[in-house]
Fold:
Amino acid sequence: MILDVPELSLVALVGISGSGKSTFAGTHWKPTQVLSSDFFRGLVADDENDQSASGDAFEVLHYVAGKRLAAGRLTVVDATNLQSHARAGLVKVAREHDVLPVAIVLDVPESVAWERTEARADRTFGRQVLTRMHRDLRRSLGQLAKEGFRKIHVLRGVDEIAAAEIRYEKLFNDRKDEHGPFDIIGDVHGCRAELESLLGELGWKLIRDERGRPVDAVHAEENRKAVFVGDLVDRGPDSPGVLRLVMGMVAAGHAICVPGNHEQKLARKLNGRNVQLTHGLPETLEQLGAEDPAFVTEVRTFIDGLVSHYVLDDGRLVVAHAGLKEAYHGRASARVRSFALYGETTGETDEYGLPVRYPWARDYRGSAAVVYGHVPTPRPEWINNTICLDTGCVFGGALTALRWPSREIVAVPAAREYYAPVRPLTAVAAKPDTGLDIADVIGRRHIDYGYGQTTVPAENAAAALEVMGRFSVDPESLVWLPPTMAPCTSSSVEGYLEHPSSAFADLRAAGVDRVVCEEKHMGSRAVVRVSVSGVGDAIWTRTGRPFFGPALDEPLLARVRAAAAPILAELETDWLLIDAELLPWSAKAGGLIRDQYAGVGAAGRAALPAALSVVERVAGRGLDVGGLRDRLELRAAEIDGYSAAYRSYVKPTDGLTGVSLAPFVFLAGAGVSYAKKDHDWHLALADRLVAADPEIFTPTRRMVLDLADPAAEAAATEWWLTLTGAGGEGMVVKPWAGPAAVDAKGRLAQPGVKCRGREYLRIIYGPEYTRPEQLDRLRQRNLGRKRSLALREHGLGLAALDRLAEGAPAWRVHELVFAILAAESEPVDPRL
Amino acid sequence: MLLTLTTTHRPATDLGYLLVKHPGKVHSFSVPTGTAYVLYPEADDDRCTAALLLDVDPRLLRAQRDAFELSQYVNDRPYAASSLLSSALARVFRTALRGASKDRPELAAVPIPLEIRVPVLRGTPSLVTRLFAPLGWSVTATPIPFEPGIGGDSRYVDMRLTGEVRLADALNHLYVLLPVLDDGKHYWVAPDEIEKLLRSGEGWLAAHPEKVLIARRYLAHRKALATTALQLLEADQPATEEEAELPVARRAPLAEQRRDAVLAALTEVGASRVLDLGCGGGALLAALAKDLSFTEIVGADVATRTLEQAARRLRLDQLPERQKDRIRLIQTALTYRDDRLRGFDAAVLMEVIEHVDLPRLPALESAVFGHAKPRAVIVTTPNVEYNVHYEGLTGMRHSDHRFEWTRAEFARWASETADEYGYTVTIRGVGEADETTGAPTQLALFTIKEVSA
Structure:
């Protein structure tokens, strides 16, 4: 005997003790798929037969079953399930997860069961218990369907049980093996003419019957299918015509159709139910009245056979009339069907008396694209990977199609307003609320970002939330944050902690053969977003804060916008994201310099001469001051070197006067990440900005060299020495191939290593760091953590740009940017 | 770092006896942070100067500090007088600090003419004067300027004190006040520091007009310790949070009045399940917790540290279970939607909105009024018009305030927000109102309009 079981279901075995349930389960399913009440009694009470533990055991069993079903795993419950209250618990769990409850009854003669029971040492109950169970089983058989079991298989006798085979059946809504391509068409509402022209636009050829009525359509691409999101009927001029065409396409296998609430209501009316004749139903009935009764019967059969939603294209696409939340994808229950047909409402009504819909799309976090209709919107817009295609054709809007997988939108305008809307189409908020949810960022989170995986610890997320919540620009604009950068391996060159030779060696080791050495500007990191329209433009710091405040940021952005306009035009993008350094350091960090760096300088330059004068007078009295004077003199020289180092990054600024930006990477534009472009490309664009406005942009000096060329390396080292000798911070050595460069094994490479100047490092490691014993100790610094952090942040940033380019929902970009900020809370030596 | 002590008492070289350090020698001592030297750049009958020079070894210093701080490597510790110097002073001049002297006991007991110079010390001239002048010193404190390229004065002064003071008193003044001026102790301040403070401050601290500041800073701002010390000195309680940065006179009462006004508003709307958004250290939560008519209290803040403070303040870990179950503390940022905040009777935003950047305020409105959607929202914020009454206040009332509104500005915001999200709003003043400027705090009470079913 073959038992059909839906792929995802909760299977309850029903049978008296000794009926062979465990053996049956062991034969047909993996041990992990089977939840046995004996086992759970053992878990909670150390005794599989302790009936007093049954309450707790079932509580745990239901919990585990729930977890499995939520994850979409078939679950079998091995318990007697002879009492209706026990089965009710299982039906409840199945319904909570919108899967079908299935009962498989093992009905063996009581004598067989008694024989088996007597053979087991751990079963001590008497025959009368078995008799009672058998009586319960008889009673149960008639109740299973009423209790909600959607499939009931009864196996009578030992032989039938032994011969049974399980056959899995797919749910009706499972069309994952269909890959399209698809043309998904929004709510038609009887607008046959518009449907015909839309199909024409999409390349479909209509097939007409002898009376010239379209009854099918074919497409040159053999596999292409049309998908209708429902609401074919009501309000419009020719609902029967639309039905005739769609039914024909579905019958021919050229289209798939899910029902809308209007079909649902029409079917109820056709089935003789009492429904309110409103919302355009009378028009449809009138039009159908002119049709052949056989056609009306066909319509009724067609609608009755529609499945409320489909999961298509390996689960990447879900189509349902009113949308569908993730937990309901591929599930089957009354509430799934109801959601798919009507959506969810909050119970409130708006000023037009229409129900207020719960914004499920705003909360949607699934990876499948959900395409739906139902609510007329002025234009189709992706919200968190969902899109509504109802553009109110019947209300004088347009009939819209989405092509899958290209995601292209094709629409034809309505010839006229066929039906007056209760609520004007434009009354919908101009910008859909995609607002970010705290649940997207807090707590311990595991993120697979394509270039790798990372777990954000809860405490880092908490720290990042504080920064993001209190200081950052609008998180939805904050689409990228600069990653930290690791220094080169500590140098063994005498007197140097960092030296070009180590930087080149690092890149060579990573399998990079061509590099660009870029002057490292000592200022404040700045990420700039400028656009053609100026809307949403912003400049933010490495932690996502607004830069100076609107009074200065706005004019600065205006200058960038003006200079970048030709580049935007040439790249054919509406906006551009630029990674840059804002100079001078003192413009943004003036307070820090005064409080921290210059303060130490002032204190040192006052204290050391005072101490030296005391020591000299003591020496003048003929006393031996030993090495103290030498030590103080060395210190005095060191503090002077230190002071000179920070002083070269302090320049007077007044408002924007004296402020400039040194751009070096052009991260992204509309629909594109430029991470794969080489650095010549990036720097050439930077040069064009400098040429366009030399006052507001500073060029980045650089050298491109092949690491195989020792002469070039020597020249680059010389260049670095000159640069740092003149007060420069140092250089960054990057793989020439660009930000997304990979190493020899094809893994993401470090985007660069920094090599900082000898004098500059005094403000990092202290005035006296160049003393040989200190240098020796500093050379032991551990770079491993910094490197892995730098690479992780870089990968997260690239992934954010990729997702942005794909048009991913705001939360998907934000979770990555947030993870970069959270990574910055890791305890890594800030001097690296 | 350096300090010099000069006397013109004749014979001035008696200073060597008082300090128990011979003027003809270079004395050096190993101390935990480096080497301390006592040297005499001049020593004759008319004038004798002892210098205490601490040569700080940064490596030894580093071992004592927290890891991963940039300031560990770039700091003023080797140059500015601080607790390092006062520790060295206590070690090197232990006898003199006690006022004892084997060789010159009479001299140790009487005031002598003294000049003290500390060439680099954190502080402002006025603070240095406020601290030393009441002790009988004539004070010169010259700010140390930055280099011309940077301009202005640094946070350091070159301090000179002259006066007729008993040497032991002078040393005790320095021992206590150098770290107070520096305000950054190099070691963990344990309760036994109270005893040290009281011992060194004997005879002068209790009457010092700045004793509150001295106790707080000396005890590294550990409130509990400072309070104990001040109680022992029979002093007043220190003031509370939000108004802590305001000039003294106006502090505590307003915070209390505001809290009472919020509680009254909550009672008025009959709220029993309450959100305290931006609860901070829990000032309001504590009051809510005491009133059993509030059956569910959620304190939310963006900063985990202040939530920990709030938990301590509420003694959450010691409350009986039933009490504790009424109160929850959660971290959230009001610029995100948060489902945990839905379904409450009332939300309080007490002195919160002014800590949000103006461009981000719509996100807060959407999260609170649009998403959390409590039946009532109570918002308090400063009335900037009232600021003229705070003598000495420049700028805003708190360093983290992003804006402060006039009554008209607040009223406009409140009515626009109420309109957008379907609330009605009434506004009232909190605190003693002035005829022209109004009350110091303004409170808006929003109540939701009934939803048509």
